[in-house]
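Box S1 | Example of a co-folding query
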Amino acid sequence: MDSPRPVESIDRPKTVTEKDQQAQTEMIRRFLDQADSLAVLTGAGVSAESGIPTFRDAQTGLWAKYDPMELATPEAFARDPALVSRWYDERRRRCAECEPNPGHLALARLQDELEAAGKRFTLITQNVDRLHQRAGSRDPLELHGTFWIWRCTSCGEEREERAIPLPEYPPRCRCGGARRPGVVWFGEALSESVLAAARRAAEHCELFMSLGTSSLVEPAASLGRIASSAGAKTVEINPQETPLSSRVDISVRGATGEILPLILPAQG
Ligand code: APR
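Box S1 (continued) | Returned holo structure for adenosine-5-diphosphoribose
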């Protein structure tokens, strides 16, 4: 007969100790060494340590009275294009003052390492800030576009817009039309080709990592499920539990800026 479990071990929430975390990062390293292809999905949490508030964080200052879910819609832009443009301008200004953090830098190094070893690496991001590119990542799939590109609502021309502040609200195209940020708003479809490439990467990778995303917003949230159903090893890094946490092989409760550098190979 089994001896009874000591009371302390019964159904108590586990605290993640440093030792657990070390074991988890070593295991992720092993997964990386064994996999021929890696797909990584990132969300707002990866940029949080750069000082960019996550979308669901409370807004501050002048914007405190607005719900981001009500500003990031085509209806909001149609109703008040100046207000929505100003909000994006404020986010661009904040972003321009921020630097990529150790999480972004680790992902760029991971891409270098894997590609140098002839492995496939696909970075899929929901972030519109382009901090991955500033850290050195190449060709990320930008599921939700970027606020550094603005598109004319009349002629459709897309142009990079670096000026801070914007020259006017909303900025105007050469054809006279209003330009809008090149992001995907709530209620809008993602670019089919970008989404198809992301789904392919999730389906065909041997290792999938979901980093700093609440796994609440579709279709990005489904990529982790696609990968695990197709048999990939799966990893999540997030200080909070998400709907994906119980499905992944390794769920690390921590900040990506702290954990990701630990999974890089030691520098020689
Ligand atoms: N490291 C890792 N994760 C973090 C960190 C950190 N330092 N700080 C916060 N997080 C986690 C939070 O616990 C949360 O689960 O980042 C997640 C951020 O969640 P959201 O704000 O919902 O961001 P995201 O998942 O990217 O949202 C998806 O929805 O808001 C829209 O279009 C917007 O692209 C966004 C999409």
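The two ends are 53 Å apart (CA to CA). Confidence is low (pLDDT under 50) at residues 1-13.
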